[in-house]
Specification:
With 316 residues, the chain is mainly α. It has helices spanning 2-11, 19-49, 54-61, 66-78, 84-96, 101-113, 116-126, 128-151, 175-210, 213-223, 227-235, 242-253, 259-271, 274-281, 286-314. α2 (19-49) packs across α7 (116-126) and α6 (101-113) runs antiparallel to α8.
Length: 316
């Protein structure tokens, strides 16, 4: 793909050996690769989700066994390719299904924390051990967040208006209809994200030209031991698709930048945004909303430190 793109651009009179020519090759190849991978992954996940019925959701997510219910909610969250804002309606549906509060919070946290885009792309760049560590860390963060807030009695701060109606679960008659749903969802989400993706790839290509290894390392070193919480706090006010930030993360990872610090920023962007807070305000009172974001932020910081600690042993 890289060689073909370079050949075509060369025929168009673009010097691919120059900095900007190299950036153009990178932009085209990475854009096509990421968009294709995301479409396939999201479509596949969409097909799998059609097999989740209301009865199945109630059986596993509404289980009285706290660990089983929370773990099932985390697994369901992993198979929902949504940003934080898009996962809120499903969270409300779980509340309507009388799913335990800890499990509903676990889903709301894990859905953006264990980002499907990162899971799909990370093995190629970071290897499977790091990817598995990232997934386990995200699941643990969500489960602990749910259990902690439930234990502290924050369930009473849910708005009661959202538990009055039953959620709707459409039925699929055959595999063709399931496949159509999956591909439609893949197309819909990619169409919604493509601008963010291209912007992220373009910014990554430009950063590759102008941002040196030394400047990146210096910026990280300025934060010292606080680089992880600083990255998480800086990412929180930013609203954007994590898919659009992934190309930038990949560029950064090719430089000597700690992976846990990068992931802390990405997870913060994906899991804690102002639009999500506005949407959740209709379902949560201020105390619960603040407690949820604080708990997730602490979890992100812990996971960032954890990834930084284990990455030196897991990345070869």
């Amino acid at each position: 793909m890289h060689a073909l793109t370079a050949y075509i651009l060369g025929k168009l009179g673009i010097n691919t050996a120059s900095q900007w020519g190299h950036a153009a090759v990178m932009f085209i190849t990475d854009s096509v690769k990421i968009l294709l991978i995301l479409f396939i992954a999201i479509s596949t996940i969409g097909v799998l989700r059609t097999y989740l019925s209301k009865a199945t959701m109630e059986k596993y997510l509404a289980s009285k066994h706290r660990f089983l219910s929370s773990f099932a909610a985390a697994m369901f969250a992993i198979f929902t390719p949504f940003c934080s804002c898009s996962s809120v309606p499903i969270f409300l549906s779980l509340v309507k299904l009388r799913v335990p509060f800890a499990s509903a919070i676990c889903f709301l946290a894990v859905s953006p924390l264990v980002n499907e885009y990162l899971v799909v792309l990370m093995p190629k760049y970071f290897g499977f051990p790091i990817t598995i560590a990232y997934i386990i860390g995200g699941i643990a963060t969500g489960m602990l967040a749910g259990w902690t807030l439930e234990k502290l009695g924050f369930a009473k701060y849910l708005e009661p208006a959202f538990i009055e109606e039953d959620p709707d679960f459409p039925e699929y008659k055959n595999f063709t209809s399931r496949l159509q749903f999956g591909t439609n969802e893949g197309s819909k989400i990619v169409k919604r994200l493509w601008v963010w993706i291209l912007a992220g790839v373009a910014l990554g290509a430009v950063l590759n030209i102008y941002v040196s290894d030394e400047s990146i390392v210096k910026a990280v070193n300025l934060g010292g031991i606080f680089s992880v919480p600083l990255a998480a706090i800086l990412g929180a006010p930013i609203y954007g698709s994590c898919a659009g930030v992934v190309p930038i993360a990949l560029i950064f990872f090719e430089r000597p930048l700690p992976l846990g610090t990068v992931l802390a920023f990405l997870m913060s962007v994906s899991a804690m945004s102002l639009p999500e807070a506005v949407i959740l305000r209709g379902a949560m009172k201020i105390k619960l909303l603040a407690a949820f974001f604080l708990t997730v932020l602490i979890g992100i910081i812990i996971q960032g430190y954890f990834i930084n600690a284990v990455s030196r042993f897991l990345i070869k």
